[in-house]
Description:
This protein is mainly beta. 3% of the residues lie in helices and 40% in strands. It has one helix at residues 122-126; strands spanning 6-8, 11-12, 16-19, 22-24, 27-34, 39-41, 44-51, 54-56, 59-66, 71-73, 76-83, 88-90, 93-95, 104-105, 110-111. Strands 2, 3, 5, 7, 9, 11 and 13 form a seven-stranded parallel beta sheet that branches. The protein has a six-stranded parallel beta sheet with strand order 1-4-6-8-10-12, with no helix packed on it.
Amino acid sequence: MSLDLVIDGSVSTGGELQVDGTINGTVRARAVVVDGNGVVYGDITAEEVIVRGRVIGPIRALHIHIYAGAHIEGDVINQTLSIENGAHVDGKIRRVEDPLSEPIDQEQGYASSGWGQNYAPVYDQHYPQENVYSLPGTDDIEDDPVYPEPPARKPKAAE
């Protein structure tokens, strides 16, 4: 998706999704690439996730790669993880055998396995709506949360 595209709502695909614009909602795909200009306000679930841009919400994937300059505010639930120097992660990092099947605690907004019982995720402060980070099925689109509109981008100066 291009730099100037903004999607309000869930995105689901069986293939790869490359995010250069902004998504306000849940993302599900086989592979997700959030490039340097890309922003996702919501949770990401995929087999593989590559982050070079910004994600405000939890990420759950088998393989997660976080590159220098990336900014994540949310939990990272993974089987394998690589983080480059210069990346920013504000949230819990948890390794599990099968991150795609671990249930989400509806009250706390994180995978329920006994950890973080008193943890108040940063993204809950920004998006206090009920069940913001539940993972409804793709046929349950009407239950997806509504995320606030991201800040407007400044137009590029004429050259």
